[in-house]
Amino acid sequence: MIHARLVGALVSALALTACSQGTTATATAPASSAPSAAAASPTASVPAKFAAGVRVALVRQLSSGDYFEQWLAGAQAEAKGLNVTLEVSSGDGNNDKQALNLEQAVNQKVDAIIVDHGFAQTVQPAIKKAADAGIPLVAFDVDPGTPKAVALSQDDHQIAELALGALKEGTGGTGDVIYVYVAGFAPLDRRNEVWTQFKKDNPGIKEVAQIGVVNNSTASAVADQAKAALQANPGVKAIFAPYDEFAKGAALAVKELGLRDQVKIYGADISTADIGVITEPDSPWVATATTDPSNVGRIAVRAAALLVAGEQVGPELKIPPALVTQQQLRDGGIANIEQLTAAIPALTTPDVARVPWATP
Ligand code: SR1
């Protein structure tokens, strides 16, 4: 299917294909690796199918909030570049609606499907149908239940480890902590595994309250819960809030209660709006462990495109995060995502699921 133009180009194409076949993402450096120079131009001709246009269904569980908006923007930009029509649906938090949307995508015989979040029990039956029908599928942040699908995730264990490393440093390893968590979301469950172990390893850290809600206004709901938890536990030193909507809500609560000097927030994810919250004067949100969400959306589309072209991907792609601190953002004068990714090139991973016929 892929015709390399020169012998040298063929060698490059084979090397790149090998890159996309690993069991985990190839970019693992946390801070300073730059995109490879070899990624500058296409090394293969466009498969005929892509010249004609390819349909990929993106079936989402959630769509509101900075993380999901950035992720979609990245996916759409990559789709445009690859001549892929991305047909986007969202369950808007309704799992049955997401399952129906997924069934519909399978019935419409799209060229590939990306499932973005979701609960295993609601999406796995339709994922199995897609696999049985030979429709390539990428599952982001949800267990597809079949090795035929590519499982894409951020390295959630590392996300929690980085944020909790900062929390340990900030608290000196002792103190009352509020934890924000909702069970059932695969990334949050994986981060929770690290938190559970962290508490065992650090007996000076005491979880005095667990709060959390995921809905269309997560940040304000978490703010209300965090206010109540802070009022009930006046000695709290830190809030572990490993999702940016959680961290934004926690920050609002701390500010409204006038506790900025006492309570620090350790979060996950980033957006330009989050950078604004983290860097504002006296902000309690002092660190966040994150990937670049739009980069992850791009990778999902690239992985789907490679599968449509008959390339091997995965079965697992895991995107490494970096720790971003308030200090680092302020010192670097970083005010938006573009400046952040320039400062931390490892957040951009062009060699993960690289498409050899595309210009990165
Ligand atoms: C409700 S799940 C939210 C998480 O999904 C993505 O993995 C983001 O990192 C976010 O924290």
Automatic annotation (TrEMBL):
Q: What is its main location?
A: other
Q: What is this protein called?
A: Sugar ABC transporter substrate-binding protein
The taxonomic lineage of its organism, from the top, reads: Bacteria, Bacillati, Actinomycetota, Actinomycetes, Streptosporangiales
Q: What PROSITE patterns does the record tag this protein with?
A: PROKAR_LIPOPROTEIN
Signal peptide residue numbers: 1-20
Keyword Signal assigned to the entry: answer is: yes
Q: Which UniProt keywords apply?
A: Signal
Superkingdom as given in the UniProt entry: Bacteria
Q: Which family, according to UniProt?
A: Belongs to the bacterial solute-binding protein 2 family.
Q: Name one GO cellular component term.
A: outer membrane-bounded periplasmic space
Domain Periplasmic binding protein, by residue range, is 57-311
Q: Where in the cell is it found?
A: Cell envelope
Q: Which InterPro entries match?
A: Bact_Solute-Bind_Prot2, Peripla_BP_I, SBP_2_dom
